[in-house]
Amino acid sequence: MCAPDCSRSSRWSRAAPATRPRVRAAAESERLARDLDDPALLAHALSAVFMQSFHRCGLARERDSIGQEVLALASRHALVNFEVLGHLIRMQALGGLGRFGDADREADAVAALGARHERPLVAPFVEWYRAMRRAADGTPWAEAESGFRAAARSLEGSGMPGVDRGILPLAVLCLRVWQRRPITVDPDTDWGPYEPWARPLLLLADDRPEQAAAAARSLPDPPADHLAEALWALAATAAVAVDDTALMRRSHDALAPAAGQIAGASSGLLTVGPVDHYLALLSDALG
């Protein structure tokens, strides 16, 4: 889930396979916009840089810096859509950094801005953030799950078709993995694009360890997007459970740059707990 109007603000794709050229192209668009001294153009360019700031784990600080500049530009030049975007970028990035007090202030600010300027897409983003925030605070799992289900209902009729596909079950799975609660297996659940990273844990929960090990061996790297850290944390959990050394090493290498951050929280949608927990789990298992 990206910020409202970001698809209009930029044609860049976060999850594109050719990540490095797109990162360079976004940086070049930023340089050109600065040379032209055009605030609106620079805000567009910075939104492109933001969209390409998921090429590896652990870039929440960089995204917060982008959000700060977008906000400053938007405030000085009355660019309301970019003011919304800047607050949302900061809300998500600060959540990933575990700075929830600051993230709460961004959530309050963008909620007020969305109401004042009639931006209906803002409310679901804020509701998802608040649900994630409660989960990150260690709210009892049943109450936290209820928050995620309420947030999912907020997407109904929001004009963002397909955004929620698989997000609710993924949020619940992440919560249960982190809080070490039983994982329930419902064959009718639509996991959407997240099914490969859920499958090994679901097979383990269904007492099918051989199939779980096979699913872990064939697990691809997550897309380079806002949920990569959460999906790597699920991969790490499965790797340790089935004793897959290769996947453990891949997960550790991917998550290491995000040490000290909160896995998944930069999405503003869900969390699977501190990255450091998974790094320690992997280090112990790898000896």
TrEMBL record:
Source organism superkingdom: Bacteria
Record protein name field: Uncharacterized protein
Organism for this UniProt entry: Rhodococcus parequi
